[in-house]
Amino acid sequence: xDSMFLNRLGAAFLLSGVCVWVCYATSSAVVPHTAPxxxxxxxxxxxNKPIAPFMAHADAQRGDALVHQVCxxxxxxxxxxxxxxxxNLSGVVxxxxxxxxxxxxxxxxxxxxxxxxxxxxxxxxxxxxxxxAPGTRMSLVGLPDAAQRADxxxxxxxxxxxxxxxxxxxxxxxx
Length: 175
What we know:
It is a single chain. By secondary structure, the protein is mostly helical. The chain has two domains: 1-33; 52-157, Orthogonal Bundle (Cytochrome Bc1 Complex, Chain D, domain 2). It has seven helices and no strands. Helix 3 (60-70) packs across helix 7 (146-157). It starts with a helix and ends in an 18-residue tail after the last helix. Mean pLDDT is 84; it is low at 169-175.
């Protein structure tokens, strides 16, 4: 190695360091180091609220529209229809979790087997499926609005045969 090569190598490292410093100084001057005043988006609340007060004011027709907007891309809702990407939702209220024969549930939902899809369980599921059953294959992030969840559950109660009685109205409790 000759001295000219070493000089060029040293100059290359020095010039690279100066370029990195100039880029950092320029970006620091242009982009402030402060957090935004208002977040760009918010995540659903992490607490599961009781759904009973909202069920007293639930509307199955609004739920029908929401189910067809949110759920029917993956789920069938007609009695006797074959499963889609997700299991058929007909008769889901009162059915055991992961209890539909012939559908291949994720291990996360199979771990919930033995529990029933009650109004509260459906609400907790719809709030955040990944929190209800970590490792689930359901791609829905969640529905943070309890009134929308209640509307969906009210509609699901109208599907198929369900032996589960409607929840009693809670007098004096408003959502």
